[in-house]
Write a structure and sequence with these properties.
Elements: H1 2-52, H2 67-77, E1 84-89, H3 93-106, H4 116-133, E2 141-146, E3 155-159, H5 164-175, E4 182-187, H6 192-196, H7 207-223, E5 231-234, H8 238-244, E6 252-254, H9 271-277, H10 279-287, H11 300-306, H12 308-316, E7 321-325, H13 327-337, E8 355-359
Bound molecules: 6-O-phosphono-beta-D-fructofuranose (F6P).
Residues 199-200, 260-261, 263, 326-328, 346 line the site of 6-O-phosphono-beta-D-fructofuranose.
Length: 360
């Protein structure tokens, strides 16, 4: 009897211990969950205040995989901005495996993890957790891209999307993909107007510029020799078309959108002449080069806007592209790919006779 009592006591004792353990586990989970929600709310608050300062499109990149989390974001955005949930669904195991390995390689979460395979295992455990709590997006406005990464079809679902900007976002997403390919950016070879220090114009190349065009051709030939589907894009101005001339074996496409910034009434002048003959223009441009618009010409903001179709087309390409263009245009393109702030665009260094390779 005594033996039975002590067996009962020890069973009750271990059950109590188990219950205590479970309670503490539930409490910890709740605490972690509250913390995660708080961090998500902070990120959202940060984005909303950026929008209040004039931001137009913000990306709140997070695993908003539960309804409660998405509802919280929608509530926070009420009356402030429109929310569109973007979900990518991928069923291709090879792509998933590649992405997981890339994530472990690059994410700061694993910067201190010396055992790469342990990092991969840990990341997969995180994914399994998300899979457990995941609730499909079926509220509000959303875009779902299903198996679109490989570029072989796939499906796009859109719900409750209307208006100019949301429409552009859909257009952009349809066209972007992860196929690695290089984009080579270069200014034209030195032009006769470069030698004279004149802005704008449509002059041909100097001798030095011609030498560059031949060097560029042999570089492109070597760099892209295994890439017969690559293409060469120029502006419609002579100096870029002449720079592309020695390159053979690739299709060449001329884009008006790649033409140099239109200097309007200052076209053909040197900077000194502008300073002397149009001091107010010179001063206004010096003060705000990004927004300053040449009379009857363009501003950097105008150039950036007209480059939108070029950018979408570059995003869409699966083969390498060599872009031969001009200083202001390449500053804008480079800023887009290198994620530079708008204010810095007019100051970015894009020297002549230099090739910038962007790995997409
Ligand atoms: O000087 C060459 C040039 O391509 C001009 O044709 C053009 O007006 C200028 O560069 C743009 O650079 P910035 O905006 O610095 O004047």
């Amino acid at each position: 009897m005594k033996q039975n009592t002590s067996m009962l006591e020890s069973t009750v004792g271990s059950s109590m211990a188990l219950i205590r353990l479970l309670i503490s586990f539930v409490e910890t989970t709740r605490r972690v969950w509250r913390h995660v929600m708080r961090v998500a709310a902070l990120a959202m608050e940060d984005m909303l205040s950026w929008m209040e300062e004039g931001g137009q499109v913000g990306i709140c990149d997070a695993t908003n995989s539960t309804r409660s989390r998405r509802n919280m974001l929608m509530k926070m955005a009420e009356g402030k901005c429109k929310i569109i949930f973007v979900e990518t669904i991928c069923n291709d195991q090879d792509v998933l495996e590649r992405n997981i390995r890339l994530k472990v390689q690059q994410s700061p979460d694993y910067a201190e993890q010396t055992d790469f395979e342990a990092g991969v295992r840990d990341f997969k455990e995180r994914l399994a957790y998300y899979e457990k709590v995941y609730e499909p997006v079926d509220e509000g406005s959303y875009i779902k891209m299903i198996d679109m990464v490989s570029g072989n079809g796939g499906q796009l679902q859109i719900n409750n999307i209307s208006g100019y900007l949301p429409g552009r976002i859909v257009f952009f997403l349809v066209n972007c993909h992860l196929t690695p390919r290089p984009i080579l950016l270069t200014r034209h070879g030195e032009s006769l107007d470069n030698v004279r220090g004149r802005i704008g114009g449509d002059s041909s190349l100097s001798e030095v510029g011609e030498v560059y065009s031949r060097k560029l051709a042999s570089f492109v030939e070597k760099r892209l020799k295994s890439e017969r589907t690559a293409s060469i894009w120029t502006s419609t101005l002579q100096r870029t078309i002449l720079t592309a001339q020695p390159i053979i074996g690739f299709p060449k496409i001329q884009w008006r959108a790649l033409d140099e910034i239109n200097a309007g009434v200052c076209d053909g002048m040197t900077y000194d002449e502008v300073k002397k003959n149009k001091p107010e223009e010179y001063e206004s441009r010096r003060k705000d080069k990004l927004r300053y618009r040449y009379p009857r010409g363009e501003s950097y903001l105008d150039v950036i806007q007209r480059l939108e179709p070029v950018i979408i087309e570059l995003e869409r390409q699966r083969a390498p592209v060599v872009v031969i263009a001009h200083q202001a245009v390449l500053r804008s393109l480079y800023a887009y790919f290198a994620d530079k702030p708008l204010e810095e665009v007019p100051k970015i260094e894009i020297p002549l006779h230099t090739i910038i390779e962007i790995k997409m």
